[in-house]
Write a structure and sequence with these properties.
The structure holds two protein chains of two kinds. Chain A is of the alpha/beta class. Chain A has a single domain, classed as Thiamin diphosphate (ThDP)-binding fold, Pyr/PP domains (Rossmann fold, 3-Layer(aba) Sandwich). In chain A, 40% of the residues lie in helices and 16% in strands. Chain A is built from twelve helices and seven strands. Chain B has 13 helices and 15 strands. In chain B, helix 6 links the parallel strand 6 and strand 7. Chain B starts with a strand and ends in a 7-residue tail after the last helix. Chain B folds into two domains: 235 residues, 3-Layer(aba) Sandwich (Rossmann fold); 122 residues, Rossmann fold (3-Layer(aba) Sandwich), CATH 3.40.50. The chains are: A alpha/beta, B alpha/beta. Strand 2 of chain A pairs parallel with strand 9 of chain B.
Chain lengths: 266, 371
């Protein structure tokens, strides 16, 4: 196919330099995510990191229950589907029996911080040599916007129609801080993907988390503050601004645990 | 070659039999009366370079087993009623994704926290409701420690053959007692080529593999269910197991499994001395229930007596198998109480009084004549 200048796609591919392409670790299947959802960006960052580290063929992914339940369709990796919240336990079983593999779980906030709170805490505390990518969008997305353990005070959801009342529902859980407090964790950071700068910072963290696992240094986790335009009832760009202006003040971005051994990898 | 019979505690014997069978990973949580099984493996597995991990809960331990088994590893857990209840979610996922797993239930008294005495009150749970959705595990119930060893040794082969969950159903009595047993030979561990062609081990040089129990399209999920049901029918055909004793001339039949099946052998000897022509039918596979032979025996005997350490759970399977051809009576003790041979003999005597030899079956059970 030629455009008005007469340059064909073939010519570009032959003569030009490809600077951006789909990572090998991603499949060709289109995702089902809502417009403006940042799951897709996070998927891509993980896939890029897997490609760069050359570990696609020895990586096993554990899918959660939640919006990313079908994640195994979107990656070109061996994968298993866990019960709601149990991904860290499945990851433990896989990693303990196949220690030469790279094992990571991808979990949302309801999955990890509510129904799976026991599994994530003990997995991290044992120092399992696995990696968890924790996507926090302050709401249950798949079931259409109920209150999550990470829903902010006053935030209106379909199960907190008057806004989250902390006297009734308790407080939003700061997971990265909690996990960083456990001796078994080696690398725990919080990042976001609301602009180019934060996306680049998030990418670096994903690489470090996987390197931490490859070096057998202990449990690694990257928490991502992620958008949910549909259930926040915001336009995609407004949702990104909401992460920056409303979520980040409660969930500060930063490094919560970086052991000396992990720092030496960076 | 001389036999090498050694004195074994039931829970430890099952643990060692699993080791000999080639278990590569054990994940569990302490619970009486199962705990010695976990304790034994906590020393034995690392000694052999295999995986042992004490999980934070039964919820976690069964999901660790699920993860390991997804990798094609021989993995197992063990628990007792309250723990099995917590595992039911994981067991359903294991069934839905057709991953081979072995589980041991050392039953105790229930419901609730109940107590730690022997019981058979998990019969419904294991055979009918091991988790949500349509499935049955293969459930095998030994009555001696030797039989527990032999069954455990076979479980991984069965689990892999049918890609199914296999449960060894014992109780606190069998778990805690000691008796002589001979261990089988140490089976070599699976090698890479021996693992299932579905196992998730990293997509190296082949297309990716996915293990899931999620099928959003209703026709896809029905297709999975139809495949599971077809597999269960094959298991029914191939794996019905039972022991029968003195049934050739029997006019009465005692039906009992596990520990109670063993107690009933004592009862049989005493009853025969009193001139009661009684036989024993001891189901070994609780699912699939060995119905056809029991159905045939129902045409021969005057009446059956089902004896269990529960309120009458296997009783329902016996009645389904008998299809009204003869009266089916029940004697059970609950809450961790073990029925004594004398009590069972008295119950049998009541059955022989109610359904005396020489009366017609039709007269003994109104409405059942001509079946």
């Amino acid at each position: 196919m030629a455009d008005r200048t007469g340059i064909t796609t073939e010519t570009v591919l032959e003569q030009g330099q490809v600077v951006y392409h789909r990572p090998d670790a991603l499949s060709t299947m289109l995702t089902h995510y809502c417009p403006g959802c940042t799951h897709g960006i996070i998927h891509r960052l993980i896939a890029e990191a897997i490609d760069e580290l050359g570990i696609r063929q020895k990586t096993i992914m554990i899918a959660p229950v939640g919006c990313s339940v079908l994640i195994y369709h979107y990656f070109d990796l061996d994968a298993v589907e866990a019960a709601h919240g149990r991904a860290p336990a499945m990851a433990t079983g896989l990693k303990r029996t196949q220690p030469d593999k790279v094992v990571f779980a991808y979990q949302g906030d309801g999955d990890l911080a509510s129904i799976g709170a026991a599994e994530i805490v003990h997995c991290a505390n044992r120092g399992e040599r696995i990696t968890v990518f924790f996507v926090n969008n302050a709401v249950y997305g798949m079931t259409s916007g109920q209150m999550a353990p990470t829903t902010l005070p006053g935030q209106v959801t379909t199960s907190s129609p008057g806004g989250r009342d902390v006297r009734m529902h308790g407080y939003p859980m700061r997971v990265a801080e909690l996990i960083a407090g456990l001796p078994g964790s080696a690398y725990v950071v919080r990042r976001s993907v609301y602009d180019i700068r934060t996306i680049r910072q998030a990418k670096k963290a994903v690489v470090t988390a996987l390197k931490c696992q490859l070096a057998g240094l202990g449990f690694s986790m990257v928490e991502f503050l992620s958008s949910c335009p549909t259930n926040w009832h915001l336009a995609p760009t407004d949702a990104l601004a909401w992460i920056r202006d409303t979520m980040v003040p409660y969930y500060p971005l930063g490094d919560y645990k970086v052991t000396d051994a992990v720092r030496a990898l960076e | 070659m001389p036999t090498r019979r050694e004195l074994w505690k039931g829970n430890e014997a099952i643990a060692e039999a699993a080791v000999r069978a080639g278990v590569e990973a054990f994940f569990g949580y302490p619970i009486t009366p199962q705990t010695e099984l976990l304790e034994y493996l906590s020393a034995r597995m690392p000694e052999l370079g295999r995986v042992f991990l004490q999980a934070e809960s039964e919820v976690a331990s069964i999901n660790m087993v699920y993860g390991a088994a997804c990798g094609g590893m021989r993995a197992m857990s063990a628990s007792s009623g309250p723990g099995i209840s917590l595992m039911q979610e994981g067991l359903s996922y294991i069934a839905g994704s057709e991953v081979p797993v072995v589980l041991v239930d050392v039953m105790r008294g229930g419901p609730g926290l109940g107590n730690i005495q022997p019981s058979q009150a998990d019969y419904f749970q294991l055979t009918r409701s091991a988790g949500h959705g349509d499935f049955h595990p293969l459930v095998l119930a030994p009555s001696t420690i030797q039989e527990a060893v032999d069954i455990t040794y076979e479980t991984f082969v069965l689990a892999e053959k049918y890609r199914t969950l296999v449960i060894v159903a014992t109780d606190g009595s069998l778990g805690q007692m000691m008796e002589p047993a001979e261990m089988p030979a140490m089976r070599p561990l699976l090698n890479e080529a021996g693992r299932g062609p579905w196992a998730v081990r990293g997509a190296s040089g082949r297309p990716k593999r996915i293990i899931t129990s999620l099928f959003l399209n209703e026709h896809d999920l029905e297709a999975l269910n139809l495949r599971l049901q077809a597999k269960l029918r094959v298991i029914e055909q191939n794996e019905r197991r039972w022991e029968e004793l003195d049934t050739d001339d029997a006019e009465y039949l005692v039906v009992a499994f596990g520990t109670v099946g063993r107690t009933c052998k004592t009862v049989l000897r005493a009853a025969r001395r009193e001139g009661i022509r009684v036989g024993l039918y001891r189901p070994i596979s609780l699912w699939p229930f060995p119905s056809p032979r029991l159905h045939a025996l129902a045409r021969q005997v005057r009446a059956m007596l089902v004896v269990e350490m529960n309120a009458g759970q296997m009783l329902e399977d016996v009645r389904l198998a008998v299809e009204g051809q003869c009266p089916v009576e029940f004697y059970g003790r609950m809450g961790g109480v073990t029925p004594l041979p004398e009590e069972i003999l008295q119950a049998l005597q009541r059955v022989t009084t109610d359904c005396p030899a020489g009366t017609s079956v039709g007269a003994a059970l109104p409405g059942a004549g001509g079946v």
